[in-house]
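Just wondering, does anyone understand what follows?

——
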Amino acid sequence: MTTNEALVKYCLRIGDSSLILGQRMAEWCSKGPILEEDIALSNIGLDLFGQSRTMLTYAGELEGKGRTENDFAFKRLERDFYNNLLSEQPNGHFGDTVIRNMLHSAFYFHLYSALTKSTDSQISGFAVKSLKEVTYHLRHSAEWTVRLGDGTEESHDKVQESLNNIWEYTEDLFAMNEVDKVLISEDIAIDLNKIRPLWNDTINSIIERATLTRPEDGYMQKGSLNGMHSEALGHLLTELQFLPRAYPQDKW
């Protein structure tokens, strides 16, 4: 695998995760528990879509086949997506969304912090900009985790159940393959084994503040790097891709 081929897949991995979680956040539009949170969740979604556009556009430029961000977003099948499994999980109730976003944002906070030193100027520039956004995403979801976890008995029990149910998808965040090996050797990407202890410290601190209990690592799901996903992604793509597929000649 060449460096260019690896970088295309790496950009798709990051861009797809932002796209899919952004679509999940868009599903909250007009459905937030309070007006302020409705706006906050929508804004997080817009940040994620912006991040996705940058990475998918760069992937198209590297690939050199004329594919655009829209081609990657709307014209690929489920098995051609490389987003992490956590990002595609359904919103559920507000607590489910908060816990999913907290786990996801903590990972990308540390990943983008490391990627600011990437030898690829496009990746490092993207990381610098995105780090500002994901810092807010992490703070938002972390504070809500604490508020709900250390709130009423009902809110505590609900978010503990949310954490228990989604925990099995967190291992997929740290999956690596030949793409990582190639890019790490050139200091373009970061070894995710170096990110894991940082993520653990952040997550453990939030969980402790929220008076929650960290789940045990039992059966943990992986597979996104090989295009293997939960059934949730297929349903999401049906909605995300409907209009461009129904009217392929139109301009968006």
Q: What stands out?
A: The chain is about 65% helix and 0% strand.
